[in-house]
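User: Predict the complex with flavin-adenine dinucleotide.
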Amino acid sequence: MSAVTEPSVVVVGAGHVAAQAARTLRRRGFAGPVVLVGDEPVGPYQRPHLSKERLATGGEGGFWLLDPVWCEANDVTVRTSSPVERISAGTGEVLLADGSALPAGSVVLATGGRPRRLPGVEGERVHHIRSLSDSDRLRERLAPGRRIGVLGGGFLGTEVAAAAVTRGAEAVVFDLDAVLLARALGAGIGSAITELHRGRGVDLRLGHGVAEVRPGADGVTVVTAAGAETVDDLVVCIGIVPNTDVAVASGLAVGNGVEVDARGRTSLPAVFAAGDVAAHDHPRYGRIRVEHVDVAQQQASAIASTLAGRPATFADPHWFWTDQFDINVQGLGLGGVRPGDVVITRGDLAALNGTVFWLRDGVLVGAASIERGEDISVARELIDLEIPVGAGQLADESVPLEDLLDFDDDEVPVS
Ligand SMILES: Cc1cc2nc3c(=O)[nH]c(=O)nc-3n(C[C@H](O)[C@H](O)[C@H](O)COP(=O)(O)OP(=O)(O)OC[C@H]3O[C@@H](n4cnc5c(N)ncnc54)[C@H](O)[C@@H]3O)c2cc1C
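Assistant: Here is the predicted structure with flavin-adenine dinucleotide placed in the model:
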């Protein structure tokens, strides 16, 4: 791209990818200018807090991802309120909506995603949650005496319901599925989380599709086969759409996201993409787009390493977490789980303390846990090293999980 003496890296989108890319570029000794260009009025922050502590309490602890003092000392520029229109590979520039152009030796496209919306479902009482202002606006509505509807019982919807109840509001969750989170985490963990929500007072309207949503001046009416229910406010949590406008305008290959290889390279030289907007080619799972912070950050690190002269690929089994009230849930490798994989439970899911493992041909492919992050750490090594394990060993609480890492090639695992 541009022929400048010290080529710069421009990151388009100032979120998790941008913050991590800046840090890794400097750690790996990249010497050129680093510019993060975002359309939000603030610099990078912890997006997961928006449906957790920030929503429940308004707390700012650990919220900001980059310290302005560090940015100053490390020649990292954060440009806020600066929407980007396209990347010009011909001139080696990033073109902003205000008509200005930034020279770029390399570009990392990290525009994330935006909430999926229901046509016509808008207004003062309808909420989506992706940005800091979305979360702050919603928090003001979560108060005693208010009834909050949540459309969609996935990770985001369940976290919003938990925050609403924590703040003293009533919460009602509408979902087509009969069990919360079962599609993402399996029936065992899904049932446990469903009972957790029910036990903490969340009103669950599960197993019915939503036929109609009518926003009005006094409330929002949600109609399902089970009847009509009017809530004070409705939070629509039905997934995201990747922000591919810049990629399309720049002529990049785009499918379900910007298509990149395991190094994060797009179809244009010197243009990379990572995070929620990127559909990456994973060595184990094939082309896949995921929406998890750790994945975004690790992809950013791999790209930044490559740009600093130390080529790296991203092959991680996709770790993530969600907090449901005060309960921590983690998952790993779930993009690789298939129907027919053997499902093994360790511990007591109903008591909110256990782990589910998915096994194929005697090798672990995925794991998900409730309040057992330590099991997920061991699972990561078992998956990475493809260590043979027996179903009996995984289920047996008297066998420390760490012992399975001491596998000797001559041993046959107990099934
Ligand atoms: C409420 C909420 C809770 C979440 N909780 C969890 C969780 O518990 N665990 C987990 O693993 N993941 C969670 N996630 C997902 C996680 O936040 C994302 O995976 C992560 O933010 C992806 O990072 P990113 O850099 O790709 O995108 P983002 O962090 O979204 O950053 C993209 C940035 O690009 C900006 N942008 C878009 N278009 C343009 C443009 N044309 N010009 C300039 N800037 C642009 C956007 O405004 C945004 O600031 C949560 C997400 C949300 C919204």
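The domain at 326-405 is CATH 3.30.390.30 (Enolase-like; domain 1).
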